[in-house]
Amino acid sequence: LGLGHLPAPQNFPPPSALKDMKVTLEQKDLWDSFHDIGTEMIITKAGRRMFPTYKASISGLDPNAKYILLMDIVPMDDNRYKYHNSEWVVSGKAEPLMPGRLYIHPDSPATGTQWMKQSVTFHKLKLTNNAMDQQGHIILNSMHKYQPRLHIVQANDVYSLRWNSFSTFAFPETSFIAVTAYQNEKITQLKIDNNPFAKGFRDNGGNRRERAIVST
Amino acid sequence: LGLGHLPAPQNFPPPSALKDMKVTLEQKDLWDSFHDIGTEMIITKAGRRMFPTYKASISGLDPNAKYILLMDIVPMDDNRYKYHNSEWVVSGKAEPLMPGRLYIHPDSPATGTQWMKQSVTFHKLKLTNNAMDQQGHIILNSMHKYQPRLHIVQANDVYSLRWNSFSTFAFPETSFIAVTAYQNEKITQLKIDNNPFAKGFRDNGGNRRERAIVST
DNA sequence: ATCTTTCCCACCTAGGTGTGAACC
DNA sequence: ATGGTTCACACCTAGGTGGGAAAG
């Protein structure tokens, strides 16, 4: 079990008490369309959201027990990558990584009923390349390959978080390479086409206004 | 102690263990300028924020104990009011009120250290006149007079909330009359002058653009 | 040179304001 | 008629996008 690296098998066998627990990734088609090309996620100093957003629907929890949901993002290998001739190639050894930060879902702790009644979304999670980040964002190295993981922990509050009874889920289609600027223009176009916040960059059938010239 | 009405004295004597607990209302000058005229707060079906925002700085908590902070808003008397000849006058008996809802500060529960390190703001609290509200907003009756109260409860989580050890604080300058439309135009003007979201209604020294005519 | 990162920007989404007419 | 409520709206704040130039 590599220190902070992705363990195999990806999904831990859940404790017997939770054997019916099931997690389904939402918007799988969208994730797949990115994954087929090679997903890239922008990381910035201030922190950047992931797109697509990680959303999951959960079943099989004890309705009355309390759970904390968290995400972490672990390196998939020991390589550093570069984008060369329209493909990702290994370019060296991975940078050393600080112990991975955890993003605790802000609704935590909540009962099984509350987690199951609607899908759980992690849209507020942010990625940063700033190793000194003070805002609790997840710190990653650019040009490295990562795998997000969802953890479900039965615990009464975030302070008594113990790692003695939890289930971990990793969906391969959510893996990505962290970048500070998009490398593959097909990824850029998929983001523009699907992220509502990037609508300004869509080609509206020739009706798009030209960008204004800034006079300084 | 009137059922759901404002008890006297307004501030409960705190438990001895919390005798050093202190709560200071922020932006007291702003609250005072409203209070001097007669504060009105809009209530709507969808829920409306309060302005000024209720903010408090807190000291004297046990740094390591965990606390939940809540607000409720209680009737100040049994009257219904109306605004007549530029003043508020009693116009009848109060409407019956559902048991008051509590607004639990979203950072709850947190340690004394966390509550004390910066001021606590309740800007997300919303008021509604919709008795069937499903979104957890505080339900009030229009044309009735109210007093917001802050409660500090030592408790480990929101589910085990017990009313056996808490402190209540009520600042008279935060009392208000709930309305569906402003009655006193001095209140309207104070809101426009101070609420950033109402900047569009400020008179910019004659530079304000005329409102566009809507063609339908 | 080449590759990667940073910064400011126009352009969006999301949602908090009082208005004034319509509604009851 | 009168008094109170609702609704669509223009106009804001707040903050999430990738672009492109500049910087490293």
TrEMBL record, chains A, B:
<feature type="compositionally biased region" description="Basic and acidic residues">
    <location>
        <begin position="200"/>
        <end position="212"/>
    </location>
</feature>
<protein>
    <submittedName>
        <fullName>T-box-containing protein TBX6L-like isoform X2</fullName>
    </submittedName>
</protein>
<feature type="domain" description="T-box">
    <location>
        <begin position="25"/>
        <end position="203"/>
    </location>
</feature>
